[in-house]
């Protein structure tokens, strides 16, 4: 099994912190965000890692990594960064990780052992974190609904109540080649403009609309999402170490 880290973006909401480096190189607890991801992946036994680069790509230098480049990162969204790794996705079972999150190896172990063509993780302790990050958790929280067998029904839409949220999507997925084939077939049916604008949760919803099964895996472990400088300050003051 291999892993792909999507690290093409700048992270403009971090302001001047990303003037010289991409968001994934932002430091927290003595390591860059991408170093935390690589550590978790390695500890889960995944050593073949590709990184999709874009903004300030020359700054990303991870030992033994494979690189795919999204040179139009500023005109595209995360789905097209994922598409840049098509060479791997067609051939290998791949864990996909966003590059602005911190998590432990246990969540990767859960994904590794899942049998589905397409699977994603969700955090069950999200509300405590969202209450610390936001005055009103509903302003940033997104829908996440699953059926009684854990199949994804809806993700990433605006919500009016906590009851619409059974967890929060963590930005960690797994595609088997058979699953990626379904994703690619859908993406190839779109115009270039539609492809470039597609974000990950919109893609997942479109797959659901086409009756493509997406399995979900709950996780209650450590998961931090870095969106802005307030997040960094919160985590530094609230956590001694990871």
From TrEMBL:
Domain MobA-like NTP transferase span(s) in chain numbering: 3-115
GO function terms (MF aspect): kinase activity; nucleotidyltransferase activity
One Pfam family hit: NTP_transf_3
InterPro entries from the UniProt entry: GlmU-like, MobA-like_NTP_Trfase, Nucleotide-diphossugar_trans
Keywords, in A-Z order: Kinase, Nucleotidyltransferase, Transferase
Protein name as it appears in the record: Choline kinase
Source organism of the structure: Clostridium beijerinckii
